[in-house]
Design brief:
Length: 163
């Protein structure tokens, strides 16, 4: 069991690594000449990022919701009443992480925002491309903690693309 946990942690660390001088714990960046540059960290926006990770970057996108869709802002505003429900959300894919813990992880934005939250994370078995406009339908879960600092205030699980 311990070997499995260590293996999962190593895979997650490897998949999320963006190279040297990156990551949520880096307080200084080094230039190519070896000089130290200060690095400012962004606060974690509620529902938009993992606890302990740098918040997602907001993309300048405007996506009109489809009939029967909920905007990310409305979802975040009403997250407690939407918990456990199956919803549709339309947005632009801003990040795609394949096969982490047996799932693909998709971040979408639609241009809406509520209290600094503008990004929705979706787990799915489908593959998408950054920049693609998609409509996902899935079950809304709150306060999901996967361990190792991967915790989501709002998450859409088992997302399926619908038209």
């Amino acid at each position: 069991m311990k070997k499995s946990i260590i293996l999962i942690a190593l895979v997650l660390a490897f998949v999320n690594c963006k190279g040297p001088r990156s990551g949520p714990l880096v307080k200084e960046n080094f230039t190519t000449t070896g000089q130290v540059q200060s690095q400012t960290q962004n606060p974690v926006a509620e529902g938009s990022a993992h606890m302990g990770q740098v918040a997602s970057e907001k993309v300048n996108v405007v996506v009109e919701p489809c009939a029967g869709c909920t905007t990310i802002a409305k979802l975040m505003e009403n997250k407690k009443s939407e918990s456990g429900k199956v919803l549709r959300v339309k947005g632009s894919v801003t990040k795609f992480n394949p096969q982490i813990m047996g799932k693909n992880w998709v971040h979408i934005q639609d241009g809406s925002e509520f209290s600094g939250t503008f990004d929705l994370t979706i787990t799915t078995d489908l593959e998408v491309v950054v920049g693609q406009i998609v409509t996902f339908e899935g079950k809304i879960a709150l306060d999901k903690d996967f361990g190792y600092g991967y915790s989501y205030n709002v998450l859409m699980e088992e997302g399926k693309i619908v038209q």
